[in-house]
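@channel sequence for tomorrow's demo:
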Amino acid sequence: MTTSEFDTVAGWTRDAVAALGSDHAVPAGCRGSGSPAALTWLGTRLRLTRGARLLDVGAGIGGPAAWARQTYGAEPVLAEPMPAACSAARDLFALPSVQALGEQLPFPDHSFASVWCLGVLSTTRRKSELLSEVSRVLRPGGGLGLLVLVQLVRGLSRQPDGNSFPRPAELALLLADAGLEIFDEVRADELPAPPTDWQNRQEAVTDLLAQEHGTTPAWRESVAQQQLLGRLRAARQLDTVLLHAIKV
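C-alpha cells (generated this afternoon):
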C-alpha cells in the first residue's frame, strides 16, 4: 500500500468511528498497532504515569496514544507523516499531532522520558536514521517501546509492498548503534488476546469500511496487504515482537 493510500484509509476510519460511536475510536485506532495486552506490556515497562509525556512516533490516527492517556493518564505527543492521520488524531482524540517523519523529529534533544514506535520500523529503509532520531529526543535513561515485525528467514516467499523487515540480529545492532540497549522483549503471540468487546468494535469498523469502500483500490490494497502479512506470520517467516530499550 502506498503512503497516500494509508492516509486515505485513516480518513475513512475517522468517518467510520463518527458513524459507529466514540467507543469504537480507540480499538479502531489500534488496528495493526497494538492490542491492550501489548500496550500494557509496553506501558508498564516505560513506567507511564499521570502527566508523563510520551512521544508516539508514526502514531497513525492515535489509538495507542489515546489508550495510554486513558489508561495511565499520560500526556502523549504524536509525530505522524500523513496529514489525514494527523487530522484524524486531533478530531477523534484531541491529541496534539505534528506532521513529521520519524527520521526528522521536530523536537529538541532529550525532550522525552518515554517514546514508543509501533509497527513503523518495518515501513522504512532508513531504520538507523529513525532510531538515531528517537535516541536524540530521549533523555539519558529514558525508555523506548517498540512493536516490530521481524523477518525469521533469509528470504520471504513474497515481499509485501512498502516493507523492509529487519532480522532479529540486525535489529539488535541497529538499536545498539543508536545508543539503545534492549532490556526486555516478548513475542506478541505470547500475550493474551484482546477482549471480545475490543475485537467486536474493531470488526464493526472494518465491516463498515468494507461496506462503504470495498470496491476502491485503496481498500483492496489494504486488505491484500494485511492478508499477506497474516500468511507470512502463520508460515513463521515473520514474527511480531515487542521490545523495551533504554537510552544508555
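heads up for whoever presents: The mean pLDDT is 95.
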